[in-house]
């Protein structure tokens, strides 16, 4: 809702109206200079009726579909780009058909109109941020699923609701604390956001077509239709081309050949794929990742999968030959799937030491052992890399924030045209969410098993790692996780409590992950010149909607 003065139909601004700054494009990142415009029209309406309707529907649809398809063995993920494309014709249809009459809210000075003018890029951006929240899963729902599917118990529905909402909202506190370093800083450029900025510009700006060439919109439509048409082949007509393992075809009765050649359960040597989702699975979107990061990951991938793993497996390190070479499951000493019921006390839902001693130790595949070990190494490398390569920049940014110095043309435009979100908004939300988190864990008969000090420790862990992990994400488009170290810390300090372990991991890992998502969306709004307060309201609203929808699905 907006005041009636800002909701009247506005004309499309001419080019001169967009030139709100005489500054040069002084962004230190070349990709940003080439992609993000240095113009802004602060008169464009943002939080319109269309934004709320299409944004809420997009968030709800993606939340439902991703949670529903998330239970598949090969889960299907639908990103916010799908909504970004689909809402454009809907927004233009609403702009052409809805009435422009101003509607006054009785008893207040507020009013709004369902049609404030042409559907604009800022509305489109806010709707996409709505959808982006719905495209990510609510990790706390996994706790409810684990309890139901593997431990055959149920959580109190109020406790489950508080758990999902508090873990999703906790990241806002960290985002508010670190936004000056990760949003205002021109060196934190968030590569994935540039893809969306390019798409917004292609969909909304009118390009002059060169002779014999294509405009950005024409090129986008050709690629969209071609990729959609082709994907019917691996997804529906011929799914087997997602992994063509010639080694397995030639030596179909050989176990070693299956271990070496299988693209699904082995090393994948001699295996090919014609499915883009499979080809790009290790990195998500290679077009949005800097080249140096891709090369770094490729070298690490080759060393781990084709050097370390085969040597360790065929030398029988940790009795590796007794288990599959690649698997995420746990096994007993004989190589059979681990029977969890043997090591749990049914009444108290706690770890049974005697049952564990009588049954078997937990065993992992050799590949999964490497994954766990390298996860610790990557976290240590994250801290040292940020300290060595970005420490001076973070310190300079800290001093600049107190001296009222602004980083580049985009930051100056945002400060000139819009009010920043007051810091107390973030602090108040953080205090409320911490209180709700403590109540969810300490109340309801301590169903979640996690004591108050565990909640506070998880938050402290997330606070420590949010800045360094976000710096890596903002510069390489790759995000490290703290799930493994979270499991180890609480497992050592509070052993024998399986639910406490996953609850601790959720409060630590997901609050950090959510903070990075919020910061990424703030940076997208920064590039698209969206009022920060509008961004805040959209994100808070969409997180609550998403949590309710996912919780409803898992309970039914």
Salient structural properties:
556 residues, two-stranded antiparallel ribbon
Shape: globular
Quote the average pLDDT. 86
Instruction: Please give the count of helices.
Output: 21
Helix content: 55-70%
Summarize the entry for a quick read.
The chain has 556 residues and is mainly alpha-helical. It has helices spanning 15-18, 30-35, 49-69, 80-97, 121-135, 140-149, 157-184, 191-204, 216-237, 246-250, 255-261, 276-279, 291-314, 353-359, 366-402, 409-417, 423-442, 452-476, 483-493, 498-528, 532-555; strands spanning 102-104, 111-113, 244-245, 271-272, 344-345, 350-351. Strand 1 (102-104) and strand 2 (111-113) form a beta hairpin.
Task: Itemize the secondary structure elements and their pairings.
Elements: H1 15-18, H2 30-35, H3 49-69, H4 80-97, E1 102-104, E2 111-113, H5 121-135, H6 140-149, H7 157-184, H8 191-204, H9 216-237, E3 244-245, H10 246-250, H11 255-261, E4 271-272, H12 276-279, H13 291-314, E5 344-345, E6 350-351, H14 353-359, H15 366-402, H16 409-417, H17 423-442, H18 452-476, H19 483-493, H20 498-528, H21 532-555
Antiparallel strand pairs: 1-2, 3-4, 5-6
Helix pairs in contact: 3-4, 3-5, 3-21, 4-5, 5-20, 5-21, 7-17, 7-18, 7-20, 7-21, 8-20, 15-18, 18-20, 19-20, 20-21
Word description of this protein:
The protein has helices at 15-18, 30-35, 49-69, 80-97, 121-135, 140-149, 157-184, 191-204, 216-237, 246-250, 255-261, 276-279, 291-314, 353-359, 366-402, 409-417, 423-442, 452-476, 483-493, 498-528, 532-555, and strands at residues 102-104, 111-113, 244-245, 271-272, 344-345, 350-351. The chain is mainly α. The protein has a two-stranded antiparallel sheet with strand order 1-2. Strand 1 and strand 2 (111-113) form a beta hairpin. Helix 3 (49-69) runs parallel beside helix 21, helix 8 (191-204) packs across helix 20 and helix 18 (452-476) runs parallel beside helix 20. The radius of gyration is 26 Å and the shape is globular. The chain starts with 14 loop residues before the first helix and ends with a helix.
């Amino acid at each position: 809702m907006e005041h009636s003065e800002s909701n009247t139909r506005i004309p499309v601004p001419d080019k001169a109206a967009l030139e709100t700054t005489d500054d040069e494009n002084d962004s230190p990142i070349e990709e940003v200079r080439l992609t993000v415009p240095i113009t802004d029209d602060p008169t464009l309406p943002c939080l319109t009726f269309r934004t709320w309707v299409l944004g809420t529907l997009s968030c709800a649809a993606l939340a439902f579909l991703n949670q529903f398809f998330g239970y598949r063995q090969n889960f299907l993920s639908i990103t916010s780009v799908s909504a970004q494309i689909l809402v454009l014709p809907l927004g233009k249809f609403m702009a052409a058909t809805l009435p422009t009459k101003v509607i006054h809210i009785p008893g207040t000075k507020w009013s709004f109109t369902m049609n404030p003018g042409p559907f604009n890029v800022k509305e489109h951006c806010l709707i996409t941020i709505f959808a982006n929240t719905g495209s990510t899963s609510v990790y706390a729902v996994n706790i409810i699923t684990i309890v139901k599917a593997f431990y055959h118990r149920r959580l109190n529905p109020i406790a489950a609701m508080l758990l999902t909402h508090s873990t999703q909202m906790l990241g806002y506190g960290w985002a508010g604390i670190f936004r000056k370093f990760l949003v205002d800083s021109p060196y934190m450029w968030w590569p994935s956001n540039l893809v969306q900025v390019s798409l917004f510009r292609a969909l909304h700006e009118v390009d002059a077509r060169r002779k014999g060439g294509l405009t950005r919109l024409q090129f986008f439509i050709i690629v969209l239709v071609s990729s959609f048409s082709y994907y019917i082949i691996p997804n529906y007509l011929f799914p087997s081309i997602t992994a063509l393992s010639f080694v397995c075809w030639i030596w179909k009765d050989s176990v070693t050949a299956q271990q070496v050649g299988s693209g699904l359960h082995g090393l994948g040597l001699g295996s090919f794929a014609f499915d883009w989702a499979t080809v790009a699975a290790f990195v998500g979107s290679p077009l949005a990742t800097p080249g140096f990061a891709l090369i770094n990951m490729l070298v690490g991938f080759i060393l781990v999968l084709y050097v370390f793993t085969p040597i360790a497996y065929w030398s029988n390190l940790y009795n590796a030959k007794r288990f599959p070479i690649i698997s995420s499951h746990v096994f007993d000493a004989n190589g059979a799937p681990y029977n969890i019921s043997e090591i749990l006390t049914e009444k108290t839902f706690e770890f049974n030491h005697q049952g564990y001693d009588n049954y078997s130790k937990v065993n992992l595949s050799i590949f999964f052992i490497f994954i766990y070990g390298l996860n610790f190494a990557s976290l240590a490398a994250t801290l040292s890399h940020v300290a060595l390569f970005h420490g001076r920049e973070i310190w300079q940014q800290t001093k600049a924030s107190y001296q009222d110095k602004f980083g580049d043309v985009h930051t100056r435009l945002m400060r000139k045209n819009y009010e920043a979100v007051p810091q107390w908004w973030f602090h108040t939300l953080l205090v409320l969410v911490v209180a709700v988190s403590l109540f969810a864990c300490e109340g309801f008969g301590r169903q979640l098993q996690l004591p108050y000090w565990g909640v506070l420790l998880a938050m402290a862990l997330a606070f420590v790692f949010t800045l360094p992990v976000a710096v890596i994400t903002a510069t390489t488009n790759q995000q490290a996780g703290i799930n493994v170290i979270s499991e180890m810390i609480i497992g050592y300090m509070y052993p024998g409590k399986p639910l406490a372990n996953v609850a601790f991991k959720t409060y630590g890992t997901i609050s950090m992950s959510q903070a990075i998502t919020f910061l990424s969306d703030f940076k997208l709004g920064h590039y698209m010149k969206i009022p920060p307060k509008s961004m805040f309201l959209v994100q808070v609203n969409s997180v609550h909607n998403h949590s309710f929808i996912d919780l409803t699905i898992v309970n039914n």
